[in-house]
Amino acid sequence: MFKFDPDRKPWYMRMHAIRPIEDPAAAGGSDPGDPNGGDPDPAAPAGHDPDDPLGEGGMKALKAERETNRQLKAQIAQLAEQVKAFEDKDKTEAQKQAEALQAATATAAEATLKATRYEVAAAKGIPLDAAARLRGATREEMEADADDLLRLLDPDRGEGRNPDPPKPDPSQGKGGDPRPSSLADAISRHYK
């Protein structure tokens, strides 16, 4: 006769403890070549912080790398200044002033164009977020582009505006028969 042992469970009740190892990266899986069987490193320090994956040595190396990077950037800037000085060595003072004037003129033209763009947008009622989308080299070109942009943003405004909305078509849908006043009236209408 079968004797029930509470510590001995049937196989189907013990299946929850079996895990496939097809994917070692999956939770609970382990690398078949791992001598620890997927357990954490037994030599790991007890106070290891899981939020700090680099550890103390890694942080020192990271700080050293950042310092080296900072020094190299400073060295690059210094060398760029030396190259510029070498290039400017052969130039006359007039050439240097001409280059500075050309750079200042380009900056001023860019600022004027940007200011004109915002002025046109404000005058036409375009949101300032959309002002950067205006194109054109002159104020007139920007105003024409602003008109086009307004038609796209608000189709009801301007020449392409439809003055009257469409009227409902009475032939569509159920007719306007009055509601029956009683159940008997509804039944008699149904059988007509």
Walk me through the structure.
The chain has 192 residues and is mostly helical. Among the domains are: 57-90; 91-154, no CATH class. It contains five helices and no strands. The chain has helices spanning 11-14, 55-89, 93-124, 139-153, 183-190. Helix 3 runs parallel beside helix 4. The protein starts with 10 loop residues before the first helix and ends with a helix. The model has no long low-confidence stretch (mean pLDDT 78).
Number of helices: 5
Per DSSP E runs of 2 or more residues, the count of β-strands stands at 0
Termini distance? 81 Å
Mean pLDDT: 78
Task: Specify the structural class.
Answer: mainly alpha
Q: Biggest β-sheet: count, sense, barrel?
A: none
Overall outline: flat
Radius of gyration: 40 Å
* Strand-residue proportion: under 5%
What is the chain-wise order of helices and strands? HHHHH
Q: Would you identify the regions where 5 or more consecutive residues have pLDDT less than 50?
A: none
Percentage of helical residues?
Answer: 40-55%
